[in-house]
Amino acid sequence: MTTQFPPIDPDKSPLFNADHDPVRVADALRRSPHFATADADPGGDTVRFTTEAGINYTLTFTDAEPTDDDLLPEPVLTEAIAAAILNHPGFVTADADSPREDTITIQTHNQVRHLLVLDVDRGNALAPEDLSTPAVDVALAADNLLISNPSESERATAELLNYVAATWDKQDLPLREHAQAVARALAR
Fold this sequence. Notes:
Blueprint: H1 21-31, E1 35-40, E2 46-51, E3 56-62, H2 75-86, E4 91-96, E5 103-108, E6 113-120, H3 134-146, H4 152-166, H5 173-187
Antiparallel strand pairs: 1-2, 2-3, 3-6, 4-5, 5-6
């Protein structure tokens, strides 16, 4: 008697394909509150993303040895990218600033390692007038919740978000970031 096995569903398979690593990195960045957009072509080696400030970057997967290129002025960005990648189930390590400030070394569950090189993508920067401020985004999410016939807990959440947005400059950074994360969750 021969047993027939169903085909493997790649979305449910524990085996990861290295060709899809850029897509997984883009997915990890999209899940992070620090990035507005992220995309990658399946089978490609580049991830394009935009920060909350509207600055566009690219991450390029490479096996090349590190060089002594100019360092980027924002080494903290690589830490945020590494944290977002590490939150994705397809990756086991993400080391920012290794071997230099504009790189991230990542490793997948199936032991494939990549060096990601960060570079500013100057081709499609958003105009300052096209960017909304975080306080406005938080207030808009709260207002959208209030007009949707909210429950008592949703109304309390919306009122708290409106208060944080109205006093944005007086709030500390962790509270601002948390308010943005709550506003993003409400928008979904």
